[in-house]
Amino acid sequence: MEQYMKNGTRSSTYHLIATTSWLGMGEVATKDVFDWIATEPLILVASGTIARLLNDLATHEVYTGDTASSIECYMNVYGATKEEAQMEMRKIIENCWKDINQEYLRPTVVIPREKLMAMIKLSRVAEFIYKDEDAYSFSKNKLKDIVSMVLIDPIIP
């Protein structure tokens, strides 16, 4: 399970997305900040874990058998049922949110709050996209309508 999580968070490209999202943030994107992210701090690991597990929970029924997921790994390692595995993934996600909040509230000199908040926002996006379904892979559902409402037909006060 541990090996799957290590590979799964990397293959989800979350680390890359989190890091490249900083490039347009101006002066706060210093060498020290990029050196810090290269150490894989807890907030990055927790955020990536949330994205990976939410994706697995949303796509498990759709792609069963195509590739390994955290659900199948947990079931195989611990002899658990699908429901028990899903419940455990939700507990891990909840604990990752606690880690993220703790890391955000910890005072730091090297990392500007804007960088930490960017990772929190990416985790929120993952929660939104994978809440009820895989809205990323099947974007013709609710995600398409929501993006249209925001970008094409915005409500202007």
Task: Describe it.
This is Terpene synthase metal-binding domain-containing protein. GO terms for molecular function: magnesium ion binding; terpene synthase activity. Keywords: Metal-binding. Residues 1-99 form the Terpene synthase metal-binding domain. This protein is mainly alpha-helical. The protein has helices spanning 2-11, 14-20, 31-38, 42-63, 70-78, 82-105, 113-130, 142-151. Helix content is 69%, strand content 0%. It has a single domain (2-151), classed as Farnesyl Diphosphate Synthase (Orthogonal Bundle), CATH 1.10.600.10.
Kindly summarize this structure in a few lines.
With 157 residues, this protein is mostly helical. It has one domain: Farnesyl Diphosphate Synthase (Orthogonal Bundle). It contains eight helices and no strands.
